[in-house]
């Protein structure tokens, strides 16, 4: 991902959340992978910005993830190929995740000297802090089946069969009452403490931005 993708995701979430005609949002990759991680050349460019501009980019990235996670309408991620770094945050922020057997996942930020802090709330809620403490530290790749066992993925289908797997889920969602679905989603998240406070949001943004301009990140990138 890069600045253009961050802007598009943020803009898309805001527009779709405010459209009463939209009942379900489906996110999928257009190419060989669902999301192959950050464009490292773009990260280098951002790291060279002044502190205010660097902080604003982290804020926009975090806000895009937060808006996706707290979108009142149901969201479905269809994952094939690689789902790396921020891609795992996108998946963790969706309500339903279906992955094909060729999918693989990794939380790789630490490998490049940066930090995945702005997606930790979503990842903790999806796979539990115990798994985050392994995979965000080791940056290991894990399979679709491992992702399902951890709770990141709900269903694994054969490679090339994502549309077939999507059909029944989509039909079930569209048969449910839209207002009840919206209220159920947000109520469940509030009960679980998954709605982030503004203070915690700002703390994560600051940490994310400052780490990108550290000596360790300069070496890693």
Word description of this protein:
The protein is an alpha/beta fold and about 220 residues long. It contains 10 helices and 7 strands. It has helices spanning about 5-15, 40-45, 50-70, 85-90, 120-140, 145-150, 160-175, 180-190, 200-210, 215-220, and strands at about 25-30, 75-80, 80-85, 95-100, 105, 140-145, 155. The two termini are about 15 Å apart.
Write the topology of this structure.
Elements: H1 3-17, E1 25-28, H2 40-47, H3 51-69, E2 75-79, E3 82-84, H4 86-92, E4 96-100, E5 104-106, H5 120-138, E6 142-143, H6 144-150, E7 155-157, H7 162-175, H8 178-191, H9 198-212, H10 215-220
Parallel strand pairs: 1-2, 2-4, 3-5, 4-7
Antiparallel strand pairs: 5-6
Helix pairs in contact: 1-3, 3-9
Note the overall shape: globular
What is the CA–CA distance across the termini? Answer: 15 Å
Low-confidence stretches: none
Order of strands across the main sheet? 1-2-4-7
Radius of gyration: 17 Å
Q: Count of helical segments?
A: 10
The amount of helix comes to 55-70%
What is the arithmetic mean of pLDDT? 95
- What composes the largest sheet? 4 strands, parallel
In terms of structural class, how would the helical and strand content be classed?
Answer: alpha/beta
Determine the strand fraction and express it as a percent band.
Answer: 5-15%
Total number of strands: 7
What are the secondary-structure elements, in order, as H or E?
A: HEHHEEHEEHEHEHHHH
């Amino acid at each position: 991902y890069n600045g253009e993708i961050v802007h598009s995701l943020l803009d898309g979430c805001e527009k779709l959340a405010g459209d009463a005609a939209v009942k379900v949002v489906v996110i999928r990759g257009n190419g060989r992978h669902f999301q192959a991680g950050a464009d490292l050349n773009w990260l280098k460019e951002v790291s060279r910005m002044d502190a205010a501009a660097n902080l604003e980019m982290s804020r926009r990235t975090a806000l895009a993830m937060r808006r996706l996670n707290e979108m009142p309408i149901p969201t479905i991620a269809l994952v094939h190929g690689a789902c790396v770094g921020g891609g795992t945050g996108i998946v963790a922020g969706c309500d339903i995740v279906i992955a094909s057997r060729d999918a693989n996942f990794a939380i790789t930020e630490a490998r490049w000297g940066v930090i995945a802090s702005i997606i930790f709330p979503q990842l903790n809620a999806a796979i539990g802090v115990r798994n985050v403490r392994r995979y965000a530290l080791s940056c290991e790749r894990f399979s679709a089946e491992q992702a399902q066992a951890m709770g990141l993925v709900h269903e694994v289908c054969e490679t090339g069969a994502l549309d077939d797997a999507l059909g029944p889920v989509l039909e079930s969602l569209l048969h449910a009452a839209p207002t009840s679905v919206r209220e159920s989603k947000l109520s469940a998240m509030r009960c679980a403490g998954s709605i982030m406070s503004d203070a915690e949001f700002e703390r994560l943004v600051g940490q994310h931005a400052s780490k990108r301009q550290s000596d360790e990140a300069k070496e890693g990138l």
